[in-house]
Amino acid sequence: MEEQPIHTLLFNYFSGHSTPEEELAIWQWLEADEQHKKIFTEMSDWWATVHVPWFDSGKQADFIRHFSAVQTARNIREKRFHLHLLGKIAASLLVLVTLGAVSFQAGKQSFREEESVVFLETHVPFGGNNRITLPDETQVWLNAGSTLTYTEDRKKNIREVALQGEAYFEVSPDSVKPFIIKTGRLDVRVTGTSFNIQAYEEEETVDVVLVSGKVNVFLPDREAEQELEMMPDTWLSYHKATAGVSVERVTGTDCCAWKEGIIRFTDLTFIRLVPQLERKFNVRIQVESARLSEEIFSGSFTADHTLYDILEEVNVEKKYTWTRQGSSVIIRDK
């Protein structure tokens, strides 16, 4: 038996280290007061949009300070829990049933239904990512800095998504009602399959990676609309400047590692790696080194790597130096 304050239990939960017994205690706290659910939602948003891995190691201290401020403002009494060693299966089931309704969402979401049309919009800020289930049961993982708008017209048998950013889809099969993704540059049409689309406005390409099934890619901005059929383990890149298309063979699952918090890259210049780091860590990176901009890297970083860890790996030969100014990092030659 162990006594734990609620802010410690919540910190463990958000950082991914809570035990089934601790999650059960959180469930009890949530059920005790509707205000607790509002606090939980607010802390979820704060964790996603503010506290991402940076240089500092004071996550828990920052969390407790913010949590205390929320409690003080709402006059919520602190509570300590005695954790009884319950069976892990029972605890997990209770958490699945209850926490699922207020689970951690890294971003903002809106939903409305008008007659036969369903609308859903969700946004994930820099520094976060999120997994959502659409009304048709399609599973979507949204990467940092992404916005997805879903429309389902039940009268017209249409499921349509507008995407800005990056998302991995596991589309619920429906041969009668195809699933269409619009990116502004190309459209993707599927009936049931797994694939990844990267369509950030600032990137030079729109990329589609097919993991399983089959997708048709439409290029509406060409002189004659063109349709391309993709097969599993292929990567299609649409080059915005030239309207050209390139296709290569890949291992599809490796290209979607970001949804597990992993950055994976092959023969990539540092300047092209920078946007991924900026989105993941919610930071501005200014490279004042021509040599570093063109240096080529291959490798991967897990969700446990901080920005500091990554810059240390980049600077393994100690050729560069960096300074932090607010939410910016400036990198220069030594």
Task: Give a quick set of tags describing it.
single chain, 334 residues, alpha+beta, 14-stranded mixed β-sheet, 3-stranded mixed β-sheet, flat
The total beta strand count reads: 21
| Annotation field: number of helices | 8
Low-confidence stretches: 49-57, 73-78, 81-107
Structural class: alpha+beta
Relative helix content: 25-40%
How would a crystallographer describe the biggest sheet? 14 strands, mixed
Could you say which overall geometry the principal axes of the C-alpha atoms support?
Answer: flat
Q: What is the beta-strand fraction?
A: 35-45%
Taking all residues together, what is the mean pLDDT?
A: 77
Distance between the termini: 54 Å
Tell me the radius of gyration. 22 Å
Order of helices and strands: EHHHHEHEEEEEEEEEEEEEEEHEHEHEE
Walkthrough of the structure:
- By secondary structure, this protein is an alpha+beta fold.
- Helix content is 27%, strand content 38%.
- It is built from 8 helices and 21 strands.
- Strands 3, 4, 5, 6, 7, 8, 9, 10, 11, 12, 13, 14, 15 and 16 form a 14-stranded mixed beta sheet that branches. Strands 18-21-20 form a 3-stranded mixed beta sheet.
- A hairpin with a 2-residue loop joins strand 3 (108-114) and strand 4 (117-124).
- Helix 2 packs across helix 3 (34-49).
- The radius of gyration is 22 Å and the shape is flat.
- The termini are far apart.
- The model is unreliable at 49-57, 73-78 and 81-107 (pLDDT under 50).
